[in-house]
Amino acid sequence: MQKLLVTIALAAGVGLAAATAVQAGTLDDVKAKGFVQCGVNTGLPGFGNPDSSGKYTGFDVDYCRAVSAAIFGDPDKVKYTPLDGTERFPALQSGEVDLLVRNTTWTMSRDTTLGFTFAGVNYYDGEGFMVRKSANIAHVKDLDGATICVQGGTDTVTGLADYFKKNNLKYTPLVIDKLTDVNAAYDAGRCDALTTDRSGLAANRLQMSKPDDHIILPEIISQEPLGPVVRNNDVQWFQIVKWVSNALLDAEYLGVTQANVDDMKNSQDSAVQRLLGVGDNDFGKSIGLDKAWAYNIVKDVGNYGDIYEKNLGLKTPMQLARGLNAQWSDGGLQYGIPIE
């Protein structure tokens, strides 16, 4: 009996140690290797796109950089893994990437059956359609009988099927895994329309041989809340990514920008002091970061609005108005959870 109790105790101890390692594993691993491995798009202007030298920029890329800034006080300790729609989930499941920030829609099946947890919504979107101006197509229902290009491994395939079935429309899907191949097929005239998230259509249009020859139809046929994704076996890592997302939103709401963040450290607003780690405020400690974690995010990368306007705003080639992605106080859906 005593031997049995010892065995049980040892097994429990091993189990507890293993559980503890899982809880803190990703942050420890990231610190040990000195960078965050971030899964991003293979090439989507405005969100995640490499330039001629291979340097990645974009809205999603800046989320990866914000996580790096929170951990290291340096936004550029990130390595990027380009992933298409079929590659992204196996890469996250296997540990090839620490974090997936790749215009990925939060759905129930992805949240409950793949071993993932979404850390928030960084972009509210919806599925739309792009067509050639010369086709004189004004609405989605005009696509009855059309061939439609769609990227495989995405919930856009499901959204397309659901909408056409609901509206008793016929169509032929041309499903292609690689985004560049999807765009090329549409540009070459192999299909009558291209469907994906409307933000993606704005990016894809820029990659056409003659962008001005194409229009995006007005209808939105689905809900596409996009956001960063982590494995669900590490609570601490999930909390870090979640609170990085909240800090970006909170900073914008509180008026703390990349341009004024140093001056705002002198603010008498208690919420600003908590965000920036002024005085005795040390909210980073609870998630394994130092007290300047959120200050470093804003200083090095900006707030949510800074990131949006730099990559997607009306002064960029994407020309995407804030819309649903405005702060709640400005009529949008973005709402940061307070740091307190």
Question: Could you describe the 3D structure shown?
Answer:
Helices cover 39% and strands 16% of the residues. The protein has 340 residues and is of the alpha/beta class. It has helices spanning 2-33, 59-72, 88-94, 108-112, 156-166, 179-187, 198-206, 235-253, 261-264, 270-276, 293-300, 304-311; strands at 36-40, 49-50, 56-57, 78-82, 99-100, 116-118, 123-125, 127-132, 146-151, 171-176, 193-197, 214-216, 224-226, 229-231. The protein has 2 domains: 23-124 and 226-316, Periplasmic binding protein-like II (D-Maltodextrin-Binding Protein, domain 2); 127-222, Periplasmic binding protein-like II (D-Maltodextrin-Binding Protein, domain 2), CATH 3.40.190. The protein is built from 12 helices and 14 strands. It has a 5-stranded mixed sheet.
Physical arrangement of strands within the biggest beta sheet: 10-9-11-8-12
**Biggest pleated-sheet summary:** 5 strands, mixed
CA radius of gyration: 22 Å
Distance between the termini: 50 Å
Give the CA-based shape.
Answer: globular
From the helix content, strand content and strand pairing, which structural class follows?
alpha/beta
Number of strands: 14
Number of helical segments with 4 or more residues = 12
Mean pLDDT over the residues: 92
SSE arrangement, N to C = HEEEHEHEHEEEEHEHEHEEEHHHHH
Strand content: 15-25%
Assign the CATH topology of the largest domain. Answer: D-Maltodextrin-Binding Protein, domain 2
Under the CATH scheme, which class of the largest domain?
A: Alpha Beta
Structurally, how many domains make up the residues? 2
CATH architecture assignment of the largest domain: 3-Layer(aba) Sandwich
Question: Stretches where pLDDT falls below 50 for ≥5 residues?
Answer: 1-24
CATH level-4 homologous superfamily of the largest domain: Periplasmic binding protein-like II
Estimate percent helicity: 25-40%
